[in-house]
Structures are given as structure tokens and as C-alpha cells.
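RECORD CONTENTS
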Amino acid sequence: MPMMSKLLSATLLASLALGCKAPDSSGDAGKKDEGAPAKDDGDSDDASPMGLPPMAKFFTAGLDKPGPYEEPRKSEGYEDGKPHHLVLELSGAVAELDSFDLFGGTMGKPMREITDVLAKAAADENVQGLVLRAADLSIDMATAEELRGHLIAFKGDGARSLRCHAEVAGNAVYYLLTACDQIELAPLGEVMVTGPAATPVHVKGLMDKVGVRADFLHVGAFKGAAEPLTREEPSPEMMQTLEAIVDRSYQTQVAGMVEGRGIDEAAAKAAIDQAIVMGSDAVDKKLVDGISTWEDFLAESTEGSAWKRWRKEDGALADFGALQRFLGLLPPERPSEPHVALVYAVGNIIDGKGQGTVGARQEIASRTLVATLRALGRDENVEAVVLRVSSGGGSALASEQIWHAVKEVRAHKPVVVSMGAVAASGGYYISAGANKIYADANTLTGSIGVVGGKIVVGDALESIGVRTYEVHRGARAMMWSSIDPWTDEEREAVRSMMEHTYEEFLARVAEGRGMERDAVHEIAQGRVWTGVDAKERGLVDEIGGLDAALAEARTLAEVGDDVGLEVYPGEPTIRDLITSFGQVQSGVSLGATALVEEVAMVAGPEHARAVASLLRLVGDLRDARLWAVSLVPPLR
């Protein structure tokens, strides 16, 4: 939510709350009961937000009801505490955390929110089954793999039904849906299982034409993050890496179709080769069970049974305590008894504080995360820490600082890492010191290597009539300038620094994984591994998702499953918003922006977006001493 909207909501609700005494903040006031049953959806006429004063109730009582032109939230025969089906819609991106951007941004549905819904539904004896609607869903293969496991667990060996409807089902979405007992497509919908692909976009030739040069070095034969900028084609090592990644994704896709749809391997591969399968053809090939509109499918799937649509029930309007926590009148929700803490480390790894707690949903700022880990390490009520890593890497300096913080926590209590879709390079660096590492089979990890450099725009500027001049003291005062490439002496100095960093990286992995330096070096050199391959080489302990990592942490800490979970970052407060305002980091440099515009004119917007994504890494990390460093994943 944009900051102004958040402040406006807070101001409005604060004015409604005038004259209301805040609850006592001592004792268990801040305790969050994870095991509490979900609240009713508030459709009854006498429902009102708990804890709100009369004036606030007057203003908010009707805000929670569906409008006259919206879809109903439950069937006519639905009654609380009676058998029913749950209806769940998945749309947009499945993310690690809620998106929170001071200037607005795309919203993603958090993975853990979905899995919590499935777990609570499976534990509710009144839920007979789930009707899932996948509409414009965006998900990567590793996340689909983890979520698919939760869908299968929900079914409970046939105890509950799982029926799914989709409009378009692409590679990862269709793989997810193969967990369903029944799949139906919307009319004119299609199964679009094209198979996985990697399409590296190399822009060196274009950069040469416009006079922009990428001056980069790397340590590790497979460390190819900068190749699109420095080479006209992928290196043999990069092709070897991409072949392995794509092959693992393909095997996963085929296995899902064979297991979930009951077709043989040849039929699954034939469907992938056909790529677009529509209508009756998809039914004939047993990829789906039928064609229907969503409304007809819902009626058919719940025939003879009531249903209720799931929706998120928390928020400032529904919980007066949330407003008080936002304003700082109550402390954050934390379990008061011994418990496990779940810490998300998501995004590029950067030096400094970044955007603080607000930015922690999309960046890993060293000072912010280090402070958090050390606080949890000192907290006697925190018995274990699970670090959920979803990062392609970033600053070596920041990664080293976070590694030390993880080591400090581990000296007092267990640390378990759960890897998301990507936990590579710096993402692996900060994971290496944990007691145990979990990854999904299709997680991209490893990439233990170093790459660093700069974008040189001097010739490009001169070509458009812009001239620059130098005034400096010191033989290497201009070595980080974007006007000229490195001299031989400067390049050698940078290479020496990078080799030193690589050796430190190897040492951290060797210490954390109980391996010899040479054994780590053999599987390092910047090579990206899938989770399965990483496990075979000792970089990962177990194949499993976040829930498996949490279960292991509870076991190591001897904490029961019924104890609440502390999650960082929590809901932002007004203090977080104020302290983070104005700390937004700038993006791509002038030369890089011009290059992206050039690509858009010559090669079209799709390639321009790919180049912008690549160069944004340069912009984000240009102030770092060194990269350790961001993986550029294959484009889907």
C-alpha cells in the first residue's frame, strides 16, 4: 500500500477511535495464537469488527459486505459449523511475502498464506473439499513444486476432494494442477505446456554499436552473471548449466503429468511437444476432464453441498488491535512462550540499512538483517531460527556480515535454512553457516563464485557530443569511474581482490558444510545447481519446503507444533514508514537507460525488458565494492 494511503487509513481510524482506552500492553496482550480457528467471514447482519468503539462500528460495519454486483461469498445453504466446500482463487504472482512499496507496486499472494489456508482447511472436519480457481496465475516451477505438495497433503489420501478450474494453464501452473482430482478448462481456454526454455539475451553487439562497454572480471569458470554484457554468445560452461536446469524442470513437468493424470511418459512428452492443446483435444489426451464455465464448474463441484469462498480476514478495519500496533500503541505480536522465529531474506543483498523493515520485503540490507538476527539470537524465548532465503545474491561485503550474524545465532540456538526458488551466489553465502539446509528439487542454488565490474559509457557519451575531463590525485583515483575501462594494473588489482573474496567464500562454505576447501572448489567456480544436484554434492541437506524446515527447527529446539510462530518482517508500523521514507535507492544509470531504449527500438519490448532486468543489477549494486554475486536466471 502506498504510504499516503496507509497514513490516510491510520488517520481516519485513529479519529474513529478517539475516547477509546487502549488495551493493556502488558502480559499476553501481544501474543498471537497461531492455532486459533479462523474467524467467520463477517457476512451475518450483526457482525462487527471486534474491539472497535461504537463510532468506528457505525462507519465500518458495512465495508466488509460484498457489493450488489460482486460474486457471492457463500452459497445460500451455507451455515457456520456445517459441512461445506471451500472455494479458493489463486491469481497474480505467488510470492514469499506481501508486496509493500512506498510508491505502490505489484501485489503478490504470499506462499505461506496459501499453505496456511490449506492446512487449516485440512484440519477442519467440516471442509469436505476444495474448489480451486487458477486465473492469470504466475508461479515458478520450484514454488509450484512446493505448493503442489501442500495440495496433495490437503487431500489426505482421498479424505477431501480437490477440483480445479483454469482459463490458461502454462508450464508451472499446469504442473501445479496435476495434483487435482479433476481439472476443467474454461471455454476457449488452453493447456499451454510448451516445456521449459532458457533464452539468454546477449547485448554485447548492441553495446558495441552504441559505444557502451562492460568491463567485468569473474572468478570461477561457471560464474556467468555478466556474460550477456561481455560475450556475444553464452560460454560452454553457461550452456552446460542451463542444460541441467532446463532438464530438471522438464523431468519434473513430465513426472507430474504421469503421476497426476495417469498418462504414460510418451503421451506426456507428446503433449509438451504439441505445446498448445485446446478444448476437446485436451480432454481426449486426458490433460483435463472437461470444458465448462467457472460458474457451472462451481455448481457441479459442490452439488448437494454448501460452499464458502476463502478470503483474507485481517486488516485495520477488521482488527482494532492492528491499528493500535500500527500507531505504536501496542507492541508487535509475538509469542510469549519459547518458540521458533521465521526470518525472510528476500531480494538483492545490499550494503547498509536499505529501506529498513519496510524494504525487508524486497531487499536484504546487511545492517537491517544483521540487527534482526542478533536480536533473535539474544532473545531467550526464541529457541530456533528458520531463515527463508529467496535471493540471487548481491554484495560480497554484505553477505559476509550476514554470514557472521548467522554464525553468532547458531552459537546459541539452531539455524535452519529454507531455500525458495533461488538461493544462489550471495544467497548461498548467507545460507552456508546454518545447521541444516532445505531446498526444493528445482531450487537454483550454489553459484559459489565472484564477478565484478563496471559499465563504461565514455565512448557513448562522446559519440553524442558529451565530453568529460579528469582532475584527480592518486594513480588509481579514476579506477571506479564509468568513463574509461580499467588499465592493466587496475584490472589486476581488482582480480586480486576478487580472488581473495572467492577464497573467503570457499572457506565459509567449507566451514558450514564440513568439507575441505578443494572439495568445495570442485563444485563451486560459479556453477549453478538445482536443489537435487546440490543435495548430491553436499551443498543441501534435504529436499523439502518451508514447512519441512520449520518442523526440523521445532525438533532441534524441542518446541511443540502448537506453539506460535514469530515472523520477520512483520506488519510495518508508522515508525517504519517514516524512517524508511527517502531511503529508496536509485536504479539504472544514464548509459544503461539509453541502452535499454536502444534495445526497445531495435529488438522490441520483450528483449528490452530482459536487458533492463540485467542492467538493473548493475544499478542496484554499483556502490558495492564487489559482487558475490547476482545470478541471472534463465528467462521463461
Q: What stands out?
A: The first helix runs from residue 3 to 16.
